[in-house]
Amino acid sequence: MFVCIQCNICSILPFAANHDDAYLEFLDRYDNGQLGETHDVETLVEHEKLLRPTSEINSLLEYNNASNNELLKSILYSKKDYVVDCRTLSEPEPEVGGELADLPVDRGIIEAAMSKKIERLYKFQEDSLMQILCGEDVVIVAPTASGKTEAFSIPIIQKISEEISHFSSLRPKFGIKGKVLALFVYPTKALARDQLPKVKDFAEHLGVNVSIFDGDTTKIEKDRILTTLIPEIVITNFDTIHYHLFNRTRFSRLIRTVRYLVVDEAHNYTGVFGANIHHIVKRLQRITSFNNKKDLQIVAASATLPNADEFCTSLFGRKMNVVRGRGRKGKISLVLLFPSLHSQRSLMLDLLKQASARQMKTIAFSKSHLGAELLAFYSSKQNIPVRVHRAGLLPQVRKSVEDLFKSGHLKAISATPTLELGIDIGDIDVIISDTVPINRLIQRLGRAARSGQDGYAFLALGNDPISQYYKHHPNDYIEDQEVVYTDPTNSFVEEYQVLAMACDRPILMSESTPMWNSIQKLISNDLLRLSNGKFVPNYVKALDVLRNFSIRGIGASVSIIYVGHIIGERQMPQALEELHDGAVYFLSGRRYQVYKLTS
Q1: Domain identity same for 43 and 116
Q2: Do residue 571 and residue 435 come from a single domain?
Q3: For residues 267 and 437, is the Cβ–Cβ distance under 8 A?
Q4: How many CB atoms lie within 10 A of CB 252?
Q5: In sequence order, which ranges of 248-325 are alpha helices (DSSP H)?
Q6: Does residue 184 fall inside a structural domain?
Q7: CA trace torsion 121, 123, 128, 133 (10° rounding)
Q8: End-of-domain residue from the set 31, 48, 65
């Protein structure tokens, strides 16, 4: 929309990606008398439905019993945005299950639960517990912060404690070398460290040891885990498992006794990353079944997985029993807004300003690093105290932001999807999000109103054709679930993973049929050879290839150094586009200029 105040000309042109091109088109049409009837601003706004009539907004507020809600009134009457929809998301509390004391769990677990004021489980937790105790493969789908960790950790800890109880009396005073029986896998190291205390609280009451083993674990701690006191539960990630398996390290030998695999936040393992995970799970199954003579028991969990059955069957190569939980403690006011008279970022900035003025704890989600950084940058220009949380920041910086927010000393965070995961950052009042599929939005707003207070979720649609469509069809947005998928048959991924499998342990001829094409390619590239009925790798070449292969489908990281200290990192190849010589780069809400990009 272009407006000339002096001439009182106001006209709308079709969407163009480049504003300058659209403006030139506007001038050309004006010069040639092709604008048609001109309008004053108010008439055009009404005619083009750029703003929703006040009477309709009043009806929305009344319908949602929010006529006296000052935050909603301030936002819905802003005269800048088209109010697409306003609805209250209210669910009954999750269905309650049985008392813990009546379930087949050890007294130590009951005591640990009571210390957290948990006397009864939710129904989905009870169902998960019983199925896992019976040896079933299970995928748990339940809202954010609903208790999924307890649903899978309690039964697995129970099973482990039963297994080690017969030799517990033989443990010397300072412990003995045990064996790793379970791997709890998380997509990020930060989430793993956040979940460690929750798992430990139950495990330690039964004498079950829990440790983290990943790329951030110190050498001293790794040596202790590998030699002094081997934990029954190891918290890790698939990158670590993959690396140690094909390198045949001491850790890879340690996890050959694993019987239980827990995969939390399973919806993260999509696309090429998920294809790699499929093969890593097969490799883990291969080395553990050789030692245990039986299959791994697999438990997965996610807050948003509409096609859980289909996806997990593809990801893990086996049928999984789906246990679903529902319910929420507090109600959420969900508002969809279309930025008619300003930009999406300006809309998100206005929403953040309104929430901050009321001292509400708020997270504003952006798709990209730059989006999160710019929102924080412009917020600081308006004296809104906000910090950035995204990948590429140093772990200690992200942890500082989480701690400040959880303690209440920080009220607002501008984040990428890093905070969609289950990291505990305390109570949240307001969620602001750019355009994402509805199940991603549900995952985000699941963080709000966890203590029973009223919560708010604002979806800021963009200035694009898809947002234009949802502006006029809000029910389609609500019903448009994002179905996650992965393709384990990806030949490129399979070739690398078969090579890694041969490095784990030579491939027997009897195992080779499902992967025969990949084996033939690897042989032709001098990476595998047949020896005594086994396919063995050319280790020097194979390790060189595998160490340059990323299971996440991303490149190496580039360190960002300022006055001699590393202050962040960026993955290749994005680093080439964003960190070239002379580039302006945003980090933690500040602008930096790149002096030199070196290899």
Answers
A1: no
A2: no
A3: no
A4: 20
A5: 250-254, 271-292, 308-316
A6: yes
A7: 60
A8: 48
Number of residues that this document lists for the chain: 599
Domain limits at 4? 1-48
For the stretch 52-93, pLDDT in tens is 889 999 999 999 999 999 999 999 998 889 999 999 887 777
Q: How is residue 340 annotated by DSSP?
A: S
Looking at residue 393, the DSSP 8-state letter turns out to be B
Question: Is position 436 within any domain?
Answer: yes
Q: What is the pLDDT of residues 480-490, one digit of tens each?
A: 888 889 999 99
**What letter does residue 23 receive in the DSSP assignment?**
H
**What's the rounded Cα separation, in Å, for the pair 75 and 77?**
6
Query: Cα-Cα-Cα-Cα dihedral of 564, 566, 572, 575, to 10°?
Result: -60
Tally of domains in the chain: 5
3-state class (DSSP) for residue 216: coil
Q: Give the CATH number for residue 60.
A: 3.40.50.300
Classify 428 as helix, strand or coil.
coil
SS percent in the chain: helix, strand, coil, step 5: 45, 20, 35
Instruction: Please answer whether residues 550 and 572 qualify as being in contact, where contact means their C-beta atoms are separated by less than 8 angstroms.
Output: no
In a domain, 22, yes or no: yes
Average pLDDT over residues 123-151: 92
Q: Are residues 521 and 586 in the same domain?
A: no
Alpha carbon distance 206, 95 (integer Å): 28
Same domain, 103 and 73: no
